[in-house]
Design a protein that fits this description.
Structural class of chain A: mainly alpha
Helix content of chain A: 55-70%
Shape of chain A: globular
Oligomer: homodimer
CATH architecture of one domain in chain A: Orthogonal Bundle
CATH superfamily of one domain in chain A: Winged helix-like DNA-binding domain superfamily/Winged helix DNA-binding domain
CATH class of one domain in chain A: Mainly Alpha
Number of strands of chain A: 2
Number of helices of chain A: 7
Radius of gyration of chain A: 21 Å
Strand order of the largest sheet of chain A: 1-2
Largest interface: A-B, 79 and 80 residues
CATH topology of one domain in chain A: Arc Repressor Mutant, subunit A
Largest sheet of chain A: 2 strands, antiparallel
Strand content of chain A: 5-15%
Distance between the termini of chain A: 60 Å
DNA sequence: TACTGATAGTCAGCATACTGAGCAATATCC
DNA sequence: GGATATTGCTCAGTATGCTGACTATCAGTA
């Protein structure tokens, strides 16, 4: 199939005066990162909806982290899953509104809110797990198991090196 | 440093009754995809701002694609860079508002808008290129050149397999 | 040519994500 | 103890990104 992009990407089809400094999108790690994430989110939402639930990737990550760290505050949660704290405010709003989590004032620090998962949240998390795992498999569907592992290794390595470059770096919770 | 996440992630520290079905975030390709993209966007914006410009990743991709395919319509643009057409509407609005692109009714199809880059847009693209290329290098900074290539190869492969799974798949322009 | 379906673009609505600012409370330092 | 800095959270504002719906137009066909 002959396409415009084949024409413009082939130097022989361009007059000498046309600048070709703009690289192909597929050579840009930033573009590939966005595309992969775009697909990952779509797959996640589709699998979760098929399972009969209405939960976004962030909401899932937040809920799972609250369950694993009962009583943690919002800033700690944000650090554990590497989201900006201003984003987390809205995410928690929606988890609370759906009855999956609770937000109550901390007794030790009156600025902080302690987060707890509800029974309903625990039930949702348990029932949604197969869909989440299925989504993770599907988004690596084009790769062999070995390639999938290697992709994840390289992503982890690049992320570790760039962790401090975003406003919401990953932070382990301090004891 | 002892951290809460070390505790909760170590099965020896958990009573037998605690379910550990929720995998670590770092084993989830979806989470890694979001983190890498988050860093990529932050690096892009920082480099571009350092160079004295105010352009987002989408705006850059759209502008570069308009320059390479003068007169294309919005749906074709959306397909080339794999964005939803409803997103592109707003992106073009802002490019036009900044004086970097023009949107005029198509003579062949009265539903469509033909997109053109302005001289100012061309100038901006030319001057911004070093910052964009620098950003691409920085976001792979933790990897060797070989690893960077391999990461991009694996991303391309996974994306190609999942292309149809998002609402905005990549589409080549038809002649 | 009239009908039917598909397509280009926009809009309303929702949920991320970010910047920057602000308030209240805590921690630190003198 | 009191001034200062820091921290937890929220809010306003902006830009993606998506779903679903709508209008205007085009294309194919009976």
């Amino acid at each position: 199939m002959l396409t415009i992009s084949m024409l413009v990407n082939d130097p022989r089809n361009l007059p000498a005066s046309v600048e070709t400094s703009v690289k192909d999108n597929n050579d840009m790690p930033g573009h590939l990162a966005r595309r992969f994430q775009q697909i990952a989110v779509a797959v996640f939402l589709a699998e979760v909806e098929d399972a009969g639930f209405d939960l976004t990737p962030v909401q899932y990550a937040a809920l799972a982290t609250i369950k694993a760290n009962p009583g943690l505050d919002q800033v700690t949660l944000a650090g554990l899953i590497a989201y900006d704290r201003t984003t987390i405010t809205g995410v928690i709003d929606r988890l609370v509104q759906k009855g999956l989590a609770e937000r109550r004032p901390s007794s030790r620090d009156r600025r902080a809110r302690e987060l707890q998962i509800t029974d309903e949240g625990r039930r949702t998390l348990r029932k949604i797990t197969p869909a989440v795992e299925s989504a993770q498999r599907i988004m690596l569907g084009g790769l062999s198991a070995k390639e999938g592992e290697e992709l994840m290794r390289l992503l982890r390595k690049a992320i570790a090196a760039g962790n401090e470059l975003s406003r919401a770096p990953q932070r382990d919770a301090q004891i």
